[in-house]
Amino acid sequence: MTVEQWGVHELTLTGPADGNPYTDVRLSASFQYRNRIVDVDGFYDGDGVYRIRFMPDRPGTWRYTTRSDAPALDGRRGTFECVPPGPGNHGPVRVSGAHGFRYADGTAYLPFGTTCYHWTHDQDEKRERHTLEALAASPFNKIRMCVLPTDEMVPPHLAFQGDTPGALDKTRFNPVFFAHFERRLRDLLALGIEADVILLHPYDRGHWGVDNMSPEEDRFLLRYVLARLSAYRHVWWSISNEYDFNRAKAVADWDRLGRFVQRHDPYQHLRSIHNGTRMYRYERIYDFTKPWITHQSIQHWDAALTGRWLESCAKPVVIDEIGYEGKLGKRWGNITGQALTRQFWHAAAAGGYVGHGECYPDQDPDGDGWISVGGRLRGESVPRIAFLRRLLEEASPADRLVYFGDRQHAYRDVELPPDADCSVELIDTWNMTVTELDGVHRGTVRAELKGRPDMALRIRRTA
Question: 0.90 cut: is pTM over it?
Answer without folding.
Answer: yes
